[in-house]
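Sequence and structure are kept together here, with a separate record for every protein. An example record follows, reproduced without changes.
>
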Amino acid sequence: MARRIAAGAAYGGGSVGLLGAAAVGVVLAEVQLAKRLVGGGSAPVPPSADGRYGVAFAGGTAPLQLVLLGDSTAAGQGVRRAGQTPGALLASGLAAVSERPVDLRNVAQPGARSDDLERQVSLLLADPSRAPDICVIMIGANDVTHRMPATQSVRCLTTAVRRLRTSGAEVVVGTCPDLGTIEPVYQPLRWLARRASRQLAAAQTIGSVEQGGRTVSLGDLLGPEFEANPRELFGPDNYHPSAEGYATAAMALLPTVCAVLGLWPESDRLDGARREDMLPVAKAASQAAREAGTEVTGARAPWALLKHRRRRRLPAATEPHPHPQLGPPGEQGGSTRVDRRPGTDTGTSPRHV
């Protein structure tokens, strides 16, 4: 199915559905119940984390430019402090590993689907003087909950990855999370949501790797911790991650972010003890979708490397330092991410991730 979705996205095929027609009636009834159960709390507007990290490393070396794109998981909805957002955690970790300052921009939009990536990428590339070194994209959950055609979803993502790679940026995609882990959602919607999420995640991997990006499976956001500790890792609305959940996600993404920038040594040797392998890209994508934290990177076409990198402990959460180009957090011009488009619902229903 993932191969069919990716092929349809690449060659302009028709819509490929993620769910069978016979399940639609049951799903709609379950969705109405889930809407009443999920989001009972309130998810605060994500704080602006734009700014400079690792100022202690300031010197003759130019700062690395890190950008986050995507939906509310990329924006950090569900936490109240800038230092708890995935962007801040990744920027702090990247600064510590590279021993260079890192300028963070976040253009992610709560409630965004993959068709919003065109706007986000255009906004990002509008200023050539601030070309990104590394872009992290986290997208896909709203595509599933809005029943966006999977081929359209993957086409929008691969176009964004291609534009960013053409601009010279490295790209790491955190694939669609496993919506089957949302605690108040009952069967059979839980099973259907998990199946649709994994199919989309695998198709996202195929499309992104073919465009020169790397992917990290977010799976059940991110790993078995969410199912084992849902009260600890979900935020107050029972849908968005808590600070601990975002830290888990950042720990899964950081090794790949550092590797793609050449900050950690790459080895052609595959570690069998960590179940690393070289597989056809479709098979690697399918396997990665089943195991959170798995990296897929392109090798010799049509092969891809499947890696399970060791997670590194993140440095203590830090708040961003204002930078003249980025502006102080919360001030006009400081962050384009918190400027809401007219009519955008930033509530906490299961339609908005």
